[in-house]
Queue: 2 jobs
Job 1
Amino acid sequence: MKVLVINSGSSSLKYQLYDMTNESVLAKGLVERIGMDSSILTHKPTGGETITEVSEILEHNTAIRKVLDKLVHKEQGVLKSVTEIEAVGHRVVHGGEYFKESMIVDRVAKEKIRELIDLAPLHNPAAMMGINATEANMPGVAQVVVVDTAFHQTMPEKAYLYAIPRVLYNKYKVRRYGAHGTSHQYVSRIAAEFLKKPIKDLKIITCHIGNGGSLTAILNGISVDTSMGMTPLEGLMMGTRSGDLDPAIVPYVMNKEDLTVNEVNSMLNKHSGLLAISGISSDMREITDGRAAGDPNCTLAFDMYEYRLRKYIGAYAAAMNGVDVIVFTAGIGENSIIVREAVCENLTYLGVELDKSLNAIRNDDPRRISSSNSKVEVLVIPTNEELVIARDTYRLISGTQA
Ligand code: ADP
């Protein structure tokens, strides 16, 4: 079965086409700047050359049509006909309390995603556009949604409620939902396989740190706490997001600077984090380069980032009364030797002992970076959210066909 995985953003659409007989990627690509002038389509058939085309793509419908055209293109394509694609899997950012696992797209699922636009105003409309555009271009094809919040639906009340009037939860479902659930779940499963231990016997802290970042405490295989909250703003310091802050700062700054709700939202989501403190970039590579060159602002940005990350690891070890495994994943977690080293050097009280030479190895395989004496296994596990989406889609669709 061939499965197309779609990650639809408000002005972008990423795709990967899988052949599920061997879970190989046949082609992948990205449409950027949808709705703006000079939209860019980048298409890469596996083993072939990357093709980049600039044109005007006004909405997601056209974006999917162009992607399908590429997939069946005589030279650049990998399919004879679009009908070879038997199912499409979509990433959905916010599933509220409804989506506890991946689901086949039907009328109810669509209604729920639409209802949840209130909680994810930037992301869920984009997912809906992707679903509708798929329906328009591939009528009748089965669709599945894989939801980023679903894995965290196991959090207990004491972890997901905010200490604010209960009426806000009852009326508006104001609570913590988390994010990156697909990735946290995937890397925790791979960690248990790698260690050859049943996941139900492990206390795992997964650190998904990329542009956005979150940590999850996984006890006996289920998420018991995670650092993102009602929205992806809570928790760690991130590329452009503030992470945790005193909520009283918001009205204070709005008042002093005469800011609107949108302006303060934008300040905390787009102009904070590494970018605000370094003054130069939200990209960890530039921060570590700046730090190496002696830039004091980059050094401070790095130190704050590492300090806050380490405090969360301590918090989750406390939440689970211990930790057996710490997993690093996503752009920074998989690649930044220096962030991992700085974090682990200060976790000796937990029994963490880093093996610096193992930490310096770069490859794409799951690997151990702790020494043989370490009381906690520290692993680097490349995440693969697209593969999880393809697998869930395949599982649910073949289930209905069996
Ligand atoms: P997203 O959250 O958008 O999916 P990624 O998981 O791709 O992002 O992570 C992007 C982050 O990973 C950036 O901050 C980037 O600097 C960082 N990163 C990528 N490669 C490296 C590297 N070799 N060293 C340090 N940081 C890296």
Job 2
Amino acid sequence: MNQEFPTFPKECKSMLCKHLTKEVFTSLKDKKTSSGFTLQDAINSGVENIDSGIGVYAGDEESYDTFAALFDPIIEEYHSFSVDDKHKSNLNPNDLKAPNPDPEGKYIVSTRIRVGRNIDNLPLGPAITKEQRNEVEKQVSSALKSMSGTLSGVYYPINGMSEEVSAKLIEDHFLFKAGDRYLEAAGLNRDWPEGRGIFHNDEKTFLVWINEEDQLRIISMQMGGDIKEVFTRLTSAISEIEKSVKFSYNSHIGYITSCPTNLGTAMRASVHIKLPKLAEDMDTFKAITDKHHLQIRGIHGEHSESEGGIYDISNKRRLGVTEVECVQDMYDGVVALIAKEKSL
Ligand code: ADP
Ligand code: ARG
């Protein structure tokens, strides 16, 4: 591995390039966590992909301490969360005030809420061994066999899935794409496709991705804007899975995830929403999303473009706010976006 201080081109805007000063680099370059994860491993994605927004990944919970001189300022900037803050969790759907903001279905196409989770006492995806990853697949797919009622479903490994089936699942927004270059450079695609897969119920309203960026991505989604129903389904699914799988969590940074943007709640609550008029005035659009701490993505997920005036709008903050607050951020912003679109 290259032990030289990386140089970034002038146009690089990543948080890595901003916060990896020579002093930070020198103080961390010879450190290693107990799973053998180094600074070079943590920064490789941002070094190889200079268009990264963030550019770093953790190999284990320990990485957040060992490389704190780099991770802390990134966490602080992304989440407005300081080293003395404590994370808090609230997964109680009764605390969410979110009546359907679009009961006629004119704007909101679909709603999706996901959380990332990783198993306690195991390395995260960037540092996990093939055997440990396969063990995660076994443990999680077996736990999912006991889901009952509308949450019951089937686990489909990617290994052996036909091109046709996976392409359709991706196109319909249910499955992750293969070959993401940020994940590739982070070591998250090693041994692909072994150990990866998707569980879903018949209706595809409850899904679990296994061994993508995080060991689990637990997802609840459905057509339309009944955000509370989507949140309620997600929280029951999480409690069911927690009966047999212990997740990695600490009181400072919440649920441990491989990317620092997902720490805390690890929750992204989004709608696919039609805003063709507002899209003609991106400054006004962005002023509303900034005010409500929201992020705008395209409709084929992160790093994709919008199509037909439809956008993916989701909460940006995940740490130092509760799950209910994450969804509330998204809800309040969506109400404001719809009101603006109607007025145009
Ligand atoms: P993640 O949310 O898991 O971090 P992505 O942004 O890549 O990752 O999204 C994963 C998939 O979920 C993509 O196919 C995306 O289009 C789909 N998706 C996200 N939000 C919604 C939504 N509200 N309705 C339907 N599909 C969605
Ligand atoms: N590593 C990528 C970047 O820095 C993605 C960061 C956030 N998204 C994520 N899926 N973790 O741009």
